[in-house]
Design goal:
Structural class: alpha+beta
Number of strands: 6
Distance between the termini: 68 Å
Oligomer: single chain
Number of helices: 2
Strand order of the largest sheet: 3-2-1-5-6-4
Radius of gyration: 22 Å
Helix content: 10-25%
Length: 136
Amino acid sequence: MKKLIFVLIILALAAPVFAQVNNNRDAEFYCVNVSVEKIYPSHEGYIVQYRCGSATVATIGIPNQWFTDAAGCAELVKLPLASDWPTMSVFYSDGKFSHVRLYTHPAKSHWTWGSIPMGIDVSKFFTDKESFKLKH
């Protein structure tokens, strides 16, 4: 009985050593965080105006499908009430777009949320639904 317990203890201590997967490849994973000026919800997705320099503002679209798919590549995170400045974090893995997180003010009445007038064509912001290219 003592031998059985001794063998089980040795196996329990040695098992994690063999459970590690080492593929000798370090994935390069990095994040780009930008300040958001305005967020416009539309029927196709969110149109986001963000800072890409000290005085330059760029615009990009995030399709609704990215938020709803099972393996979606976008996430909408509501900030606590104390912090009211929205940001957008874009994550890259091995130099390719991985996913995006949009940190927003929880109240849609906040001045960072905007509205698009009816009849405006927003499809030009959603032409490339496979990648996500920020302007720097």
